[in-house]
Design brief:
The structure holds 2 protein chains of 2 kinds.
Chain A lengths: L1 E5 L9 H15 L3 E6 L11 E3 L4 E5 L2 E5 L3 H14 L3 E5 L6 H8 L4 E5 L6 H15 L2 E6 L2 H11 L4 E2 L6 H5 L15 E5 L9 H14 L4 E5 L4 H7 L2 H6 E5 L3 H10 L2 E4 L9 H9 L3 E4 L2 H7 L6 E3 L4 H12 L2 H15 L4 H24 L5 H5 L12
Parallel strand pairs in A: 1-2, 1-6, 2-3, 6-7, 7-8, 8-9, 10-11, 10-13, 11-12, 13-14, 14-15
Antiparallel strand pairs in A: 4-5
Chain B lengths: L7 H69 L5 H16 L3 E2 L5 E2 L3 H18 L2 H48 L1 H5 L23
Antiparallel strand pairs in B: 1-2
Classes of the chains: A alpha/beta, B mainly alpha.
Chain lengths: 397, 209
């Protein structure tokens, strides 16, 4: 199959959608498909062979965080050229309504279109203003995918219709086979817990965890907090109490290997996010690496953990509840062992081998639909107005 | 001194009326062209949506047929106990009797939608009842590679049925929305194409290949 993937966000900048597109591309290429990706970015930025960059990305505040998007006539003509030269059997557009490469690709695509909705929130007011413009565009999409029940609900309430749920994929084995590092491993007296994500973005929940850590340190003074993620470390330290700052190790931005090793080492991974998450891929990665997961009870996280069967949940934003849950898990080795085993089994559902097979099934369905649709004869002006004679004898049921 | 020449005001007034008429005619023509463009555009949009529904229906029908065929083969394979085999053969062949057909205009239609829906739900129920974890384990032991292949085919077709049905219903709701528009109804832009319906049945297979 010839597949064209469209990513609306700058490939250079880390982000869930970008990782998903990259991994999907590489997985499909591994299966022998021809895959190309288009994304915003400077042409001289380089990148893998399959990647086409379509122009400088501009930072724009969009959907609660800063996204690097590309638009304008130059981008538009590059997208069109990419579509023409690619001669794709199917074009798979991510976040089709983001004001970036995606909506341009949707407008220009002639091949059958699959669209994946990642976000669990669309800005309703803007969407309603744009409805008359957007409707005919949306009708070009033959197959809609939502990455979670939360994302699907957003689609059904704001856009109408339905979408197939296919979760984000994880290379489970990369995490399952990660080697723990002694410096990140905890002991009975000094357990380690991990946080992953931008440290200066409040919705990732570091403030909640910092407050919770004050209580945790009162009960278990040896506990260490490992914080991995980009952002201003000094400012983050200043926002913490001195005790918590002293117990925290900032690792900065970590590589994929370091992330896997960290998750394989710690006694618990904490996901204190307070909103805006539609999936929770990190939770799957943590489960795959064997880290017991403690997460806020956002719908997306509850879904990934399948209730409390494979992890622990606390009331979103409640630092005291977070602290209680952490202390409970740290004080109970048997519970940790159970969570590790359950999490590793759960993570298999999200392995790329499973997810890519589902996405390929969507491609096949969409290509079949488009093939048949192309053979359907359109009624002429005359037959629209005058009922064809051969049907006049038919009795109306 | 002024006699013999028409009053300049009257002359101007006459020209003004001519210009006004011309403006009105131009505006009317522009409006007509716009209306005509909008009607053609809407008709083309509706045609595309109808074609999409038909394509999606063909995809759904094809996957349903594959699912029923694989279930029928499994029923006839002799790997299962006689009661389960009979049940599977019965419901699967009912499904295969009710596939989509082309009408006089050459368009694909589901004849007897309600019966088809209940037959497909029955097949899903039968597969879920028959293929428990225990049966699957026995099946793999007794049937080896052949049974494995049949199970895979049922699982693959089952997944594609779910996907195709959602995409079909998605396309149907889009057609229904456009056809509810006043312009479309007033100008009969849909012609005599029947209003498509969503296909509703239980397609949730509980076993995973």
């Amino acid at each position: 199959m010839r597949v064209g993937l469209v990513c609306p966000y700058d490939f250079e900048v880390p982000g869930g959608v970008q990782y998903h597109v990259r991994d999907l591309a590489e997985h499909l290429i591994g299966q022998g498909h021809h895959v190309e990706v288009i994304a915003p970015g400077d042409e001289d930025a380089g990148g893998p062979d399959y990647l086409t960059l379509c122009g400088r990305a501009v930072p724009v505040r969009y959907n609660g965080s800063v996204a690097r998007l590309a638009f304008g006539p130059v981008t538009s003509s590059r997208v069109t050229r990419w579509l023409e030269q690619g001669d794709f059997d199917v074009v798979h557009i991510h976040e089709p309504l983001s004001p970036s490469v995606s909506v341009l690709a949707l407008l220009a695509a002639e091949a059958p279109v699959v669209a994946t909705f990642h976000a669990s929130s669309l800005r309703l007011r803007a969407m309603q203003a744009a409805y008359p413009l957007v409707r005919p565009l949306l009708e070009k999409i033959i197959g809609r995918i939502a990455v979670s029940e939360a994302a699907r609900r957003t689609v059904t309430t704001h856009l109408g219709g339905d979408a197939v749920i296919i979760p984000n994929g994880v290379e489970v084995d990369d995490f399952a086979h990660a080697t723990p590092r002694p410096e990140w491993q905890g002991t009975e007296e000094a357990p380690t817990v991990a946080f992953l994500g931008r440290i200066d973005e409040p919705r990732k929940g570091l403030p909640v965890l910092s407050t919770a850590m004050e209580e945790v340190l009162r009960q278990r003074p040896g506990t260490r907090l490992l914080i991995a993620g980009p952002g201003d470390v000094e400012a983050a330290r200043d926002r913490m109490s001195p005790e918590v700052a002293a117990a925290s190790t900032f690792l900065g931005m970590v590589s994929d290997e370091e992330k896997a090793a960290m998750l394989a080492s710690v006694d618990a991974y904490i996901a204190p996010h307070i909103g805006g998450e539609s999936f929770g891929i990190v939770l799957v990665e943590a489960m795959a690496a064997g880290a017991p997961v403690i997460a806020s009870d956002l719908p997306a996280f509850t879904a990934v953990l399948d209730g409390e069967a494979n992890g622990r949940l606390f009331t979103t934003g409640d630092a005291q509840a977070c602290a209680r849950t952490i202390l409970d898990v740290l004080g109970d080795p048997a519970q940790r062992a159970r969570l590790r085993a359950a999490g590793q089994a759960r993570a298999r559902h999200y392995d790329w081998s499973v997810v890519a097979a589902q996405i390929t099934a969507v491609y096949e369905t969409v290509i079949m639909t488009a093939d048949v649709a192309a053979t359907v004869e359109e009624p002429g002006l005359w037959s629209r107005v005058v009922r064809p004679r051969k049907r006049t004898g038919e009795a109306g049921a | 001194m002024v006699a013999g020449r028409p009053a300049p005001q009257a002359h101007r007034r006459g020209r003004r009326i001519a210009v006004e008429t011309l403006t009105w005619i131009t505006l009317a023509v522009i409006a007509l062209v716009l209306v005509a463009w909008y009607l053609t555009y809407s008709a083309a949009r509706l045609d595309r949506l109808h074609a999409k529904v038909e394509g999606a229906l063909a995809a759904l029908d094809a996957q349903l047929v594959r699912r029923a065929e694989a279930a029928l083969e499994l029923g006839a394979s002799g790997f299962l106990d006689p009661a389960t085999s009979l049940l599977l053969v019965d419901v699967a062949s009912t499904c295969l009797d009710r596939t989509a057909e082309r009408d006089e205009d050459g368009h694909l239609r589901l004849v007897g939608l309600a019966e088809r829906e209940s037959a497909e739900s029955d097949l899903t129920d039968a597969l879920n009842a028959a293929l428990t974890d225990q049966t699957l384990a026995e099946l793999r032991m007794r049937g080896g590679a052949m049974a494995e292949e049949l199970i895979d085919r049922i699982a693959a077709a089952g997944l594609r049925v779910q996907i195709a049905r959602r995409f079909h219903n998605q396309a149907v709701t889009e057609v229904q929305r456009v056809r509810r528009k006043r312009v479309v109804r007033a100008f009969r832009l849909a012609g005599y194409a029947p209003l498509p319906e969503t296909v509703e049945f239980n397609d949730e297979l509980t076993f995973t290949g």
